[in-house]
Design goal:
Layout: E1 31-33, H1 67-70, E2 75-76, E3 83-84, H2 87-93, E4 102-105, E5 109-116, E6 130-137, H3 142-155, E7 158-159, E8 166-172, E9 175-181, E10 186-187, H4 188-193, H5 204-223, E11 228-229, E12 238-240, E13 246-248, E14 255-256, E15 265-266, E16 269-271, H6 278-283, E17 285-286, H7 288-304, H8 320-328, H9 331-337, H10 348-361, H11 372-385
Parallel strand pairs: 3-8
Antiparallel strand pairs: 1-16, 2-7, 4-5, 5-6, 6-9, 8-9, 10-12, 11-14, 12-13, 15-17
Helix pairs in contact: 5-7, 5-11, 7-10, 8-9, 10-11
Bound molecules: adenosine-5'-triphosphate (ATP) and magnesium ion.
Magnesium ion binds near residues 106, 236, 237, 249 and 250.
């Protein structure tokens, strides 16, 4: 999550941020560079002129009613279609926010497992009803409020099989909570980087499936009536359901794309160190293609099994992009950086194609990067050619990299203070 501007509204119903003041608070999980003015008109004023505008749901529609099936290509709802929960409801659903129920801790709050009735979404006893994920924001965080508001405005109105479903929210005095569909397998970050012996390493095929799902989610955002720039694409924001279908979560930083023939939006620089596009960090100019760069970084993480940024790696290897970029264009060098845990599961051609795609996404000129639609098409081709894996020779090795030139690191002012990209446990 992470939105940069807009002052807290006093309205009890979340509204689109209007005239707003700059919030100087810097969330602990993100970098944020002050000084650039933010185009606040892009913070969530989604167009209602979408062809699907007539397809709004009643706000109390049963959560089990799947609109993903009715609208496989996704849709923009005219108004957020969300259930409003009381704080007492969510206290019951999480057994008073019991620590046993914690699913994870992010930059702005803690995510709990909870139970609600499948039809009415009323809280119910653990073990009965439907499992949901409930994010409880740290009450003192003003930045968290902005993120919460952006999440409700964007995610509450966007519906697509590859975007996590926001079911409702609670705004009770100082308490801000968000209620999401539960994603059984957690985040891609957990699978790629947490060396948990009980979690099987993701196979090559599953990595492709996840990449395709996440790419479809981004493609939907970029091609929707009003382009939406996601701005916070990273492994921890890609959640996986029981079948490893990928869904993008956390729209706290999302912005509407440029209008009036502009190529970019000028905004305060915020994001996660290691994933943000260089032009955005340097100028505050945010392009739709800035998301494509972030996607390239995640692809690189999937190919290598290494974090975008890890200060525990030796000098010259801490920034994954800088370190491995020269290896992506050489078939011979590519072998050295591929994750040993998927060795034998892909053809050299498939790996090389994936590396070429990664390189294109990481292009320094945003215009040179492919669209997410093109990315989806290439990934689907790679998936098709990877259909018959060679005999698996999976190794559980962590030290599988060698032969790289040390490269300079980006400026430390963009470092995350904690979290995934730094390789530090939250
Ligand atoms: N809908 C969900 N279903 C299951 N687990 C979830 C869900 N949402 C979040 N989680 C878990 O909670 C963790 C924390 O999520 P959160 O979005 O707060 O932080 P983050 O993505 O790690 O960091 P950031 O604050 O930068 O977004 C996730 O990594 C994931 O493991
Ligand atoms: Mg997140």
């Amino acid at each position: 999550m992470g939105n940069c501007c807009g002052s807290p509204s006093t309205e009890p119903t979340p509204s689109l941020p209007g005239t707003s003041t700059q919030v100087n608070e810097v969330p602990s999980s993100k970098f944020s560079v002050s000084g650039t003015s933010d185009n606040t008109s892009n913070d969530g004023g989604l167009s209602i002129t979408s062809s699907s505008a007539g397809n709004s749901r009643l706000s109390a529609a049963p959560a089990s009613e799947s609109h993903d099936e009715a609208f496989p290509e996704g849709q923009i709802l005219p108004t957020p279609n969300l259930k409003i929960f009381s704080f007492a409801d969510l206290k019951t659903a999480t057994r008073n926010f019991k620590s046993d129920n914690v699913l994870g801790i992010g930059g702005f709050g803690t995510v709990f497992k909870g139970s609600v009735d499948e039809k009415t979404l009323a809280p119910c006893k653990a073990g009965t009803g439907m499992v949901v994920a409930i994010k409880k924001l740290n009450p003192e965080s003003l930045q968290g409020f902005q993120e919460w508001q952006s999440e409700v405005n964007f995610l509450g109105r966007l519906s697509h099989p590859n975007l996590v479903k926001l079911l409702g929210y609670c705004w009770d005095d100082k308490e801000l909570l968000l209620v999401y569909e539960f994603m059984q397998k957690g985040s891609l970050e957990n699978h790629l980087f947490r060396r948990n012996p009980s979690i099987e390493p993701l196979s090559w095929q599953l990595r492709l499936k996840i990449a395709i799902g996440a790419a479809r989610g981004l493609a939907f955002l970029h091609t929707s009536d009003k382009q939406v720039i996601y701005r916070d694409f990273k492994a921890s924001n890609i959640l996986l359901d029981g079948d490893y279908n990928a869904k993008i979560s956390d729209f706290g930083l999302a912005k509407l794309g440029p209008s009036g023939g502009e190529s970019h939006v000028t905004t305060r620089v915020m994001g996660t160190y290691g994933y943000a596009a260089p032009e955005y960090i340097a100028t505050g100019h945010l392009y739709v293609k800035s998301d494509v760069y972030g996607f390239g970084v995640v692809l690189l993480e999937m190919l290598t099994g290494l974090r975008a940024l890890d200060t525990k790696r030796p000098n010259g290897q801490q920034s994954l992009v800088d370190w491995t970029r020269p290896s992506l264009s050489s078939k011979r060098k590519l072998k050295n950086i591929m994750d040993a845990r998927v060795e034998g599961q892909y053809s050299p051609k498939a790996a090389f194609e994936a590396a070429q795609l990664t390189l294109k996404c990481l292009g320094s000129d945003p215009k040179s990067r492919p669209s997410m639609k093109e990315v989806v098409e290439v990934l689907e081709k790679i998936e098709a050619m990877s259909g018959k894996p060679k005999e698996s020779r999976t190794k559980h090795s962590t030290a599988h990299h060698h032969g790289h030139q040390p490269l300079p690191l980006p400026s430390p002012r963009h470092q995350r203070h904690h979290g995934t990209a730094m390789g530090v446990q939250k």
